[in-house]
Amino acid sequence: MSEFQAAPSYHLITCQVPKSMSLVMSMIFCLLLRDKEFISANRSILRAPWDTGLCFGENQFHDFDRMTQRLKIENLLGWRLTMVTREPADRFLSGFIDRCIRVGDDCYTCGNNMTCFLEAEYQRAEEYANTLKRNVKNLTRVDRHMFPQNWYVTFTLSVSEICRIVSTMGSIRENTSVS
C-alpha cells in the first residue's frame, strides 16, 4: 500500500499518505526532480491537478526495496526519509467529506451517513489487517484515503522527518462549507 517519491539529487525520500498533503508533496518532489521544466511549464505546487504529465511515475515507487535498487541506493546514510501525517480525526473528516459528499462516491452504499460509513470502513480495515497476504488490488480509492497512516510506511525504515498537520475547526469550516 506504500507509495514513495524520491529526489535523488537531494538524497530525499518521502512516503506519501493520502489526505496528508500528498498532492503538494508530489508537486514538491516533481519540482526537485525537474526544476527547469516545472518552472517553464508554469506549474504550481499548490494549485496543480494530480500530475499526469511532467513527472508522473518518474520518481514514484510502490516498493521501498525496488526503489533503492532502481536508484542504486546501497546505503541510506545521508538520505532523509520523510512523511507528512495528519491528525487522524481531521484526516477522517476531510476524507469523508471529500469522497462521500463532495465527489459523491457511494461510500459502501452509505452515502453521506457517517455512522454507516465508519462502521463499513472499520470492517474493511479490520479484514485487510487480518489478511496474511494483504491484497492491495482489492483496496478502493476510499480505503486508501481512510486506512491508518502508519500502514503506508514501515517505520523500521527510521523516518527522519515527520511533519504533522493539524487543522483548526475554523479552517475545516472554511474549506468544506460545513457550519
UniProtKB/TrEMBL annotation:
InterPro entries to which the protein is assigned, alphabetical: Chst-1-like, Sulfotransferase
GO terms under biological process: chondroitin sulfate proteoglycan biosynthetic process; positive regulation of response to oxidative stress
One GO term describing the cellular component: membrane
GO molecular function: chondroitin 4-sulfotransferase activity
Any one Pfam family match given in the protein's UniProt record, by short name: Sulfotransfer_2
PANTHER family, sorted: PROTEIN CBG14245, PROTEIN CBG14245-RELATED
Protein name: Carbohydrate sulfotransferase
